[in-house]
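Researcher: I'd like a structural prediction for the single chain below. Treat it as a standalone chain; there are no partners to consider.
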Amino acid sequence: MSKVDTLEERMNRIRRAIALEAPDRTPVVLEYAGFAAHATETPMAEFLRSPGKTLTTMIEAYHRIGGGDAINYGTFWPYGLCYDFWAKVRVPGVDMAEDKMWQVVETELMTVDDYDRVLEADWPSFSETFMKERILNDVPSERLPPKWRTLDVRGAWAAEGIPVTASYGHLPSEHILQYRADISVPGLADQTQEEDIAQFTCLLLDP
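Model: Treating it as a single chain, here is the predicted structure.
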């Protein structure tokens, strides 16, 4: 079976399951990031060097594991967790040992006075300044969005016959390129042609 046919078969299996129909079998959607480094014997610091490196490593891990119908998000950027948790993140090879797992630093960064600043300005303005000055302020500049170029991550997985089924990260909109997966389900309540089950953001650090 060709990669194109395999991709369509897997997407149809997922569509039928989401629509509460009976697929030929239960679809399996894999989700992993750091596990790919261990599965491929890639040093963690090297794995996290760029979303492009995580992409190729995660695809390699998928083929070593086998058995999945799709992948969840398809690449990884550790500093994306800063936007998820509003916290600093320690990264192997940057501010911790190269063979360690990344860590979210769960310490309080907002103060009581910050709530007044939100009211005086607005949340978008406050959050942008807060992220730059208190969360990302000590991240090496080469690992931040201005150094990125876009990469078609969904296309890379599709070339392997593997659909991507979920979004990755909360990132500054001026630095991202968003792709929408075509896993639409006819008849699914409240779903329009513009809406999707999978929205993907793909990023790559310039070498």
